[in-house]
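Aim 2 progress update. The chain analyzed this quarter is reproduced below.
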Amino acid sequence: MKRVVERTVFERMVAMRRDLHRHPELSWQETRTAECAEAGLSSLGIPFRRVAGTGIIADLPGPTGVPRIALRADMDALPIHEETGLPFASIHPGVMHACGHDGHTSMLLGAAELLARDGQLPAPVRLIFQPAEEVGAGANAMVGAGALDDVGMIFGGHLDRHYQTGSLVVTEGVVNASTDSFRIRITGQGAHAARPHEAIDAVVVGSLIVMALQTIVSREVNPAHPSVVTVGRFEAGTASNVIAGQAELEGTIRAQDPEVRRHLMNSIRRIAESSAKLHEAGVALEFTEGTPPLHNKREMVTVAREAAVSVVGELGVCALDHANMGAEDFSCYLERVPGCYVRFGAQVPGREGYPAHSSRFDFDEEALAIGAAWLYEVARQAGAALRRREGPALETS
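Predicted structure tokens:
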């Protein structure tokens, strides 16, 4: 490892992470979390402003005439009851940092400390503390609040217990899938269970739809394009001796290719409407569009990888092992400005690893040092690249 943060910075990040972990807050409710981040920024003399309810934008100065480099961390927790047994476990029943956002917030504050005392940044740097990533809405809210104004590049990352601590995962191409949801409401005709001929059974129609949806990915999509259609909720009926006249299905759609994404939606509509028509039932279909696929382009991957090599060396840099079908609203930033999203290896040594969004999820806190060092280094290297592109600045802002 060629660059590490000093011990005092690391200890402050760990203390912050544990405090945030003990006091998790759900999407759009990150009030205390934002206040902790603001206190950290204030202690460093970094000006900031509150936006989008609980979001924060903080700016460090640099040469004039050069666009800003943005670094982003998400802050929200999940509606999960914690079962880690950690001494700093959540004090709020049913709410937990089960995805590492407490770590992301802490490492961005650590990077802020490194940047604040640098004194010769090649470009201005913007720190984005984002709410509501877990519901896929925070990034667009921050964009609407001006987070990307005068930003030339943006970088971020995610703790990942699939990779060893000390590794940085930098991958070209699609690294996260799009996510959309659907709701199908079926209207049939209720009746006595003993007289099915008088009914239009919404359970039968719904079951037919569920089974037919399974053929979309297996029979309509090129196997080379990862995609998922999952029905997560099927609700119908009120009693064992009553044929249900109403049913409702809800599910999620994941894709890594925009054309496949559109095809999945069209196929769900076709199958739902055809299945209902077959049984003379009514159907209403509603799609809720979520985040697009997250695509790292080659030029930005080169910048991110060079910064990663500076931190962990050539042997510490790797690529994703396989397609990731999880969603990440960092993709909403990348639709507007160039950037790259990486992963910070964070396996807990000697302990069984539980997946993100699990009630037992945890990560190796040593990864905080790697993340902070990479955020600092990528801000410097990306800033230098922008400065070369824009021309030398004559004065500082």
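The first strand starts at residue 48 and ends at 51. The first helix runs from residue 7 to 22. These observations will guide the mutagenesis experiments scheduled for the next reporting period.
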